[in-house]
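Structure in, sequence out. Go:
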């Protein structure tokens, strides 16, 4: 048996809201490492909403989430998968305690995140129970198992401090990726671990970043070309292989699920920002936080609710 891990982010470009990096890990027979897992699990999972017939949607989040109403698609998939890990959060706060416990204390310092533990998630529990049962049967028939889902949520103030220290937003993103990789190495069993990361910003070579992040491990370069950059990290007889792949979120199911997880976490927190400020001005137009519309939102706050005080470093991200 091997471990196949997918890592992807959401929110690299926006001016408002967090940058979120997530990981999903599957245990599966080694012969399935290069297989199309969508086809292997086609009784319970679909890439497209059309003709899904009740199956879970797992796809690149940019395809699974096209409009705010699609938050239900993300929620159904994420919570069904969490249920297979015997995790059933009842609030956004409990969800964060499961996925990203390191950020919980930081989020409690923001005025717009004060109700994370008080509101429900508005899930269709019966539907999720049925979807989870179907998924578990499909997993069992193929000797596949979901073993981990984790997120690294870089809230705005924390993100800004990291950018100030590193002077490089790409370095901040890679630190989130590295933290999740270290978590895999330390927490998952001593098996063949393959990690696939969606390649970002056209970067081809990762040797320098990997050496800096994993100083106590040996590094071997396996491949560096326009489509894939592959490396092996090893220590004390243990090894993991990393593959930074162009469009990995569209090619590998664990990366797609990580993409959806990151998007879901980010959208829940952006919704808190909108809800908080709309409490001061009910006709305020909500924002998704991306650059142009984020600037519009900030200007709307200045014009319409000047009395609503906030700390700039908690709301607006450094470039």
């Amino acid at each position: 048996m091997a471990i196949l891990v997918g890592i992807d982010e959401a929110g690299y470009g926006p001016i408002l809201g967090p940058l979120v990096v997530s990981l999903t890990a599957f245990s599966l027979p080694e012969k399935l490492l290069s297989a199309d897992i969508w086809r292997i699990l086609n009784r319970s999972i679909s890439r497209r909403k059309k003709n899904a017939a009740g199956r879970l949607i797992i796809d690149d989040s940019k395809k699974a989430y096209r409009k705010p109403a699609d938050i239900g698609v993300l929620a159904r998939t994420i919570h069904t998968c969490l249920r297979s890990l015997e995790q059933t959060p009842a609030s956004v706060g409990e969800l964060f305690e499961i996925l990203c416990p390191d950020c919980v204390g930081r989020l409690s310092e923001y005025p717009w995140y004060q109700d994370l533990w008080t509101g429900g998630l508005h899930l269709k529990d019966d539907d999720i129970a049925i979807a989870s049962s179907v998924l578990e049967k499909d997993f069992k028939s193929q000797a596949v198992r979901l073993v981990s889902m984790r997120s690294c949520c870089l809230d705005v103030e924390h993100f800004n401090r990291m950018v100030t220290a590193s002077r490089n937003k790409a370095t901040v993103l890679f630190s989130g990726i590295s933290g999740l990789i270290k978590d895999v190495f330390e927490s998952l069993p001593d098996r063949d671990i393959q990690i696939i990361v969606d390649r970002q910003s056209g970067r081809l070579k990762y040797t320098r970043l990997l050496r800096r992040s994993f100083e106590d491990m040996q590094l071997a370069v396996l491949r560096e070309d326009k489509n894939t950059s592959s490396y092996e990290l090893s220590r004390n007889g243990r090894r993991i292989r990393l593959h930074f792949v162009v469009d990995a979120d569209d090619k590998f199911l664990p990366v797609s699920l990580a993409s959806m997880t990151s998007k879901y976490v980010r959208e829940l927190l952006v919704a808190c920002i909108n809800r908080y400020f709309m409490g001061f001005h009910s006709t305020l137009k909500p924002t998704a936080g991306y650059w142009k519309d984020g600037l519009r939102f900030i200007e709307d706050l200045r014009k319409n609710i000047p009395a609503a005080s906030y700390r700039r470093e908690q709301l607006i991200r450094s470039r």
